[in-house]
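User: Look at the shape:
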Amino acid sequence: MSDPITIYHNPACGTSRNTLALIRNSGAEPEVIEYLKTPPSKAQLQQLLQAMGMGARDLLREKGTPFEELGLGDPKWTDVELIDFIVQHPILMNRPVVVTPLGTRLCRPSEVVLDILPSPQRGAFTKEDGEAVINAQGQRV
């Protein structure tokens, strides 16, 4: 049994798809949580933020979300309030977030996941945009 890996994934997001493919390229099959269909609870979000050592504002996504209309750029909002907004509007959560035994990270860019994968890459990997990330020997390029 390999170490459990979880990815909070949006299949419509290229960065999220590349991150998932890098996890699979290490031989792991992660638990894939499509967070728009199955949003994390307030408690789960708090745990993820604590594990990443970041505040709620750092996890907010602006592009393609109700960020502007909700006025979330205003510094008056506390972390607790921002987490409540993410629970109500999961699209506000930036992605992908990956949890492994080695750590929890917001994987933007997708190569960030390489720092927390327990197993090495098993072969070459090229991102969807054609950028080579891993060579045939499984090493970062």
About this structure: The longest strand covers residues 6-9. The CA atoms of residues 7 and 20 lie 7 Å apart. The chain has a mean pLDDT of 96. The helical segments are 14-25, 42-52, 56-59, 79-88.
